[in-house]
Design a protein that fits this description.
- The chain has helices at about 35-40, 95-105, 120-125, 150-160, 170-180, 235-240, 250-270; strands at about 5, 10-20, 55-65, 70-75, 115, 130, 135, 145, 185, 190-195, 200-205, 215-220, 225, 270-275, 280-290, 290-295.
- It has one domain (about 5-295): 4-Layer Sandwich (Metallo-beta-lactamase, Chain A), CATH 3.60.15.10.
- It has a seven-stranded mixed beta sheet. Strands 10-11-12-13-14-15-16 form a seven-stranded mixed beta sheet.
- It contains seven helices and 16 strands.
- Helices cover about 20% and strands about 30% of the residues.
Length: about 300
Amino acid sequence: MIDLTLGSMQVSVLPESRHQYFPTEFLFNDLTAEDARRNADWLGPEFIRPDTLELGLAFQSFVIRRNDLNILVDSCNGNEKNRPTALWQHDLRSGEFMKNLAGLGLRPEDIHIVLCTHLHCDHVGWNTRLENGRWVPTFPNARYIFNRTEFEHYAALNAAPGTGPANHGSFDDSVLPVVRAGLADFVDDDFHAVRELEERVLLEPSPGHSPGHVCIRLDAPTDSAIIVGDAIHHPVQLDMPHMVMRADTDPAAAIQTRRRLMTECAESCTWLMAGHFPHMPMGRVRAHGDVFRLQPAD
């Protein structure tokens, strides 16, 4: 496990899958062999395979612990989800997520808040689990925080005739059961999960990948961090902030968001935390000419 301490807050990586290869086109339409060669000194073959340009990805959550408060950020793919249009997460039967949660000394009942950066299927899967043929909240004592803009967008899409279930069906099996259980709170994109004189955990607008995408900012007196969700998918985007991920709903806004986050992290020495980065989910962003590099946490 990788941990970081920010004031009285401890942030831990909670892996579901530490590393998988995906075809380049799973993320990007225009990554080239020259791009891979230019980044080979800091992104080895576990990130970009030089022969096939396959990309290494992880699926990871973050747990924030502060005094007696336990916050989970995003919930990966989940188990037993019917995903014929998203085969990487179709009918998973993995014990890794729950094993790693237990490795942090936590049970599902110990989570108090679930923060969702957005509602795509690989960020909400463990919101629910299958029990006696029904989807029920995995974290029964938690409040699930959904950005109102994000929820309303996908609720409308899910209900629209002829569009099919939203987000490969995850809105039906991983979001709506939480709402029906009365555990969902719909908030604006400046919601504070922790707001005290010197420490904060709050949502921060980061549009582009999805209409209501938010990052999670953690502020302590002497340090800060930001969990970027899908604002940044792969570390190669630090070298190419203009690289559009194929599912970005507003590519121009996504580019602007990425560059803003990278610049801010580099200039203010804010920790960047990325759930899809294998091997280095936390790091310091450094300027590299007019682009960036990531220095992993020890």
